[in-house]
């Protein structure tokens, strides 16, 4: 958990009168955390990430146009890796295409089981 800078300053100010262990125990944090805060009083902030190449609209349109394509084919067409396609499909909750009808073997097996 990241503590705001003003709270860090208050806690670090207590180090002038007490030890690391006493201050850490009083605030329920680790003494190592206090040492880190002393070296770097300001929180680092969030990581700057690059925008996503594959938005949900792009994936949805590609799946609608090419429903039977493999992931590597989508990757070549959209300019990314197969792993990126896999993660995007999972992120936007696309599932594997399901069979809509039973196979002849399943039909025969069900007929035998129902006649017993």
Detailed description of the structure:
There is one protein chain. With 116 residues, the protein is mainly alpha-helical. Among the domains are: 35 residues; 36 residues. 57% of the residues lie in helices and 0% in strands. It is built from seven helices and no strands. Helix 2 crosses helix 3 and helix 5 packs across helix 6. The longest helix has 12 residues. The termini are far apart. The mean pLDDT is 86.
Largest β sheet strand count, sense and barrel closure:
none
Mean pLDDT: 86
Provide the low-confidence segments as ranges: none
SSE pattern, N- to C-terminal = HHHHHHH
User: How helical, in percent, are the residues?
Assistant: 55-70%
| Tally of contiguous helical segments | 7
Structural class: mainly alpha
The rough form would be described as: elongated
- The total count of strands amounts to 0
Could you tell me how far the N terminus lies from the C terminus, measured between alpha carbons in angstroms?
63 Å
Q: Cα-atom Rg, whole angstroms?
A: 28 Å
Strand residue content? under 5%
Protein name: Transposase
Region (Disordered): 31-52, 97-116
Biased composition (Polar residues): 101-116
Organism: Cardiobacterium valvarum
Salient structural properties:
single chain; 116 residues; mainly alpha; 57% helix
Short characterization:
The protein is mainly alpha-helical and 116 residues long. It contains 7 helices and no strands.
Secondary structure: elements and pairs:
Layout: H1 5-13, H2 20-27, H3 31-39, H4 56-65, H5 71-78, H6 82-91, H7 104-115
């Amino acid at each position: 958990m990241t503590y705001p800078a003003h709270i860090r300053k208050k806690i670090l100010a207590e180090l002038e009168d007490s030890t690391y262990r006493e201050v850490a125990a009083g605030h329920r944090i680790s003494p190592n955390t206090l040492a880190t805060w002393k070296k770097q009083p300001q929180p680092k902030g969030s990581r700057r990430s690059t925008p996503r190449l594959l938005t949900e609209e792009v994936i949805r349109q590609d799946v609608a146009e090419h429903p039977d394509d493999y992931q590597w084919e989508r990757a070549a067409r959209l300019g990314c890796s197969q792993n990126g396609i896999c993660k995007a499909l999972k992120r936007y909750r696309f599932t594997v295409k399901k069979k809509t009808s039973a196979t002849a073997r399943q039909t025969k097996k069900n007929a035998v089981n129902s006649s017993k």
